[in-house]
Amino acid sequence: MLKYIGKRAMANGLILVAISMITYLIFWALPVNPASISCGTHCTPQKIAANEHLLGLDVPIWVQYGRFVKGLVVGANYADGQVHCSAPSLGYSVPTNTCVTTLLAQKFPVTLSLAIGAFILWMLIGMSMGIVAARYRGRWPDKAANAFVLTGTSLPTFLLGLLLLIGATLAHWIDPITQGLWVAPWSDPIGFFKNFIFAWITLAITSAAIYTRLTRGSVIETSSEDFIRTARAKGVSEWRILLKHNLRTSLAPIISQAGLDFGGLLGGAVITEKVFNLQGLGNVAITAVLQTYDLPILVGTTLIAAAFYLVFNLIVDVAYSFLDPRVRIS
Amino acid sequence: MSSNSGNASRKRTPLVAAGVVIVVAIAAILYGTLSGGSGSTGGAQNGGQLVYVTNASQLNHLDPQRVYTGQDIAFLNSYVFRSLASYKPVPGQDGFQLVPDLATDIGTASDGGKTWKWTLKDGIKWQDGSALTCDDVKYGISRAFATDIITDGPSYAIQDIDIPTDAKGNSMYLGPYKKTGQDLYDKAVSCNGNTLTVHLNKPVGDFNYFGTYPAMSPVKQSADTGAKYDNGPWALGPYKISSYKIGSQLELVRNPNWDPATDTIRHNFPDSIVMRFGVAEAARDQIFLTDSVKNAVNYDQGLLPQNLDAFYNDAKNATRGNNENSPYTRYYAYNVSAGHLDCVDIRKAIFFAWPIQGLIDLSGGEKYYGKVGDSPLDPLVPDYAPTTGNTHDTNFMKAGNPTYAKSLVEKAKTDCASTYARVTTKGFSIDISDTATHRKAAALIKSAMEGTGMKVNFNFIQPGVYYSTVQDPTKQGDMSAAGWAADWANASTVIPDLFIKNGGFDLDQNWNDPAYADFAKKVAAAQAETDRTKQMSMWRELAQFVMDQYWISVPIFNLDQYQWGSQVGGVEYWLPQGSLIFTNLYVKK
To answer: Alpha-carbon distance B26 to B29, whole Å?
Structure first.
């Protein structure tokens, strides 16, 4: 098992290197010079050249990438040597005058809080509704769950988020001025809850609908297995069969999907963070893409998102073998 | 002893009482002044928190030498920075008056406008309690020359201060970090006690207006953190930065070392000031439509177009919003260089066919977006005067006059055959930033031009790189959408910038136009003129010249709107800054 994990970790490291290279190449190929972005109405070639120097864009792309890798290992100096970012340095963001690693570390608790809350909510709702729908297949609870699935999956996140935001603002459930300001759960639990609840709901509704369908399908499929029939023949109650025998098997694909979804979410929920002004990784990434063309932030957030996805992919694979005895990692 | 003592005691009673009264009075005066001098602005109240709301994720810059957005300058100059001089913080035309701020006067010129002097007031302190010195001002100005670190700020210091340039035209002084050419700077900018002397490379009659800019304000060398100073500049004003979190908020608290006795411009009415970043536009609009946050001010200068009528048509909001002339003029610059729109008849034809009404309606109408203009100078610039011809011509129609335009195109057939042939066959090109509104505007313009026999093509350019693209003469098309606001209340920051080669924003590429040489000569004369009345009439003549040459399309004089909550008091508009007079705002109890 350890050998397997080691191999996968190494492969993941190589994938991350490839992703960082591809991100650099894509950004380099864009028909936009980041040095021109803030050049303004008195733009001169000298100003663009100065900006290119400040942004570290006045050297070939491979040198830029080499500097990036070196910064990850030993840290680096930026802004003409005025700023030092310690290792692992993901670069220096000129528009925000901050080391990217520091900036992303500040943003991560927001994304983590959003991801954990939404994850708990959608798993609770999705699995409960899926189990009930499977248990009462073809009857009204199943039909109600089906309606929820259709509504949830067809509601775009940005629309649901905006509707919730405007509704909650008008109802004075949230304060639009403080909405999105980070408060740690241990310093102000109520403020923390109020800050995230509508964002959690927004994210959870769509995912809960998907997990309802997933759970229902998985439970129904497992119901036709021989060991379920055996249990039923032994006179075990239906709820006990469902909760004790069926779910353990049904859960495996759900956990697998949930792990990947959670890992992906840790990279930032762009739309939800933007709508609710939550200053997480998604929000900082979209600002870097759309407004400031901030390459170091873009590379940093992409790498972090990819790293989480890969790590959770590995966790899921390992967890799978424990959940389903038929699967063994060699 | 005792009786004497008793008598003495009785005699002293009125003195003690008088002393108590005096002490109380002094304390009251001190309280009043230290907490904002509420007596100076009628009805103003101290205390509370004032909240600015914006959809933006940050202020572009906080570094005094890098901030260059009009509203941000007014905001930071009102609360955090102090500059050599300031506009008088009063509404109306009186607001254009310069008043001393850090200096004892608004600046004194000598040597025909080539040398400027300011003497600093005594007793001004930084936020840490240390005294402001002339060297701090000198150091602050020097930072603008470190163009590798101090980006985006105004370049007047680099252009005008008498420091030699290299063959490429770059300053030989590279700023206080590299110190290359430091002796050249020390010669051009010097301190003698509290007096700062700045030598310019040419006469600039209104250089003291640049003294209102944070770019000319001090920075304490020991507090300078280079690029990072942008996140936490030191204060001389009534508030200092308590925290600045990009994407979240900027918080200002009272600066205990600000002495109102040295400052006749600012107040510190609220206990604290917060600017909340990243508020969704829909949520922001609800705040002001429903007055749900009563101490809030909209920093975005407008609501979503669909919410403007809902706000302004509601009588309840009459005292919670304004609709003012913005300092911006919008226009399309004609590229008049050879091979482009080098024919006055064609430029005039485009001008008269231009669907200006439709374009204005597309962006919010005359009520909210702007009105048809007649000059490159905005009416807020004192040098503005209505021109003749152009939009006052009887042939001018807001919807466009294709018949008259067609007759001008026909005239061009003989006057300038090659240009005529090009615009009627291949067509002319318009540079425009790629937004949904501009796509619709392009359809309107295309349809208007088709009725004249001319053809038009559009270069849609990503908004973020629009200006850097069109300012490259090799990439610019035949017309380019543009907007401009005077850097200070003088056409010297409009006409030369927009219509003189190397002015910084000459999208006309007019330097080979036959009319240019005479025009440039007159501009140089106006720039050097120190008699403001004479200078004003010179600028007016030049604005008329620009319009007569049809160097720009139909201008639009923009409007701006601010909204605020019902507990915000003291709201007035500051004409020269195109913003609220931020320092006068207070929170009603």
So the answer is: 5
Which amino acid would we find at residue A9? A
Q: Which residue of chain A has the CA closest to B57?
A: A287
Per-residue pLDDT of chain A (330 residues; tens, 9 = 90+): 778 788 888 888 899 889 888 888 887 777 667 777 666 666 777 777 877 877 788 888 889 889 889 999 999 888 777 788 998 999 888 888 889 999 999 999 999 999 999 999 999 999 999 999 998 888 999 999 999 999 988 888 889 998 998 888 888 888 888 888 888 999 999 989 999 999 999 999 988 999 999 999 999 999 888 888 898 898 888 888 888 888 888 888 888 888 888 888 888 788 899 889 899 999 999 888 877 778 889 889 998 999 998 888 888 888 777 766 666 555
Phi, psi of A270, rounded to the nearest 5 degrees: -55, -55
CATH number at residue B371: 3.10.105.10
Q: Establish how many alpha carbons lie within 13 A of residue B109's alpha carbon, considering only the half-sphere containing its beta carbon.
A: 18
Q: Which residues of B touch A181 (CB under 8 A)?
A: 248-249, 276
Nearest to B227 among A37, A83, A170 (CB): A83
Residues A271 and A140 in one domain: yes
**Domain identity same for B236 and B364:** no
A202 and A317, same structural domain?
A: yes
Q: Considering only CB atoms, which chain B residues are within 8 Å of A172?
A: 292
Are residues B98 and B78 part of one domain?
A: yes
Whether complex ipTM tops 0.85 = no
Instruction: Look at chain B and report how many structural domains it folds into.
Output: 3
Interface of A with B in 231-290 (CB under 8 A): 274-277, 279, 283-284, 287
Cβ-defined contact of B230 to A82 (cutoff 8 Å)? no
Whether A180 sits inside 8 A of B292 (CB atoms) is no
Asked whether residue B246 falls in the same domain as residue B262, the answer is yes
Is residue B550 within 8 A of residue B334, CB to CB? The reply is yes
Q: Which structural domain, as residue segments, surrounds residue B6?
A: 2-34
Cα–Cα distance measured from residue B193 to residue B135, given in angstroms and rounded to the nearest whole number: 9
Q: Do A176 and B249 touch (CB under 8 A)?
A: no
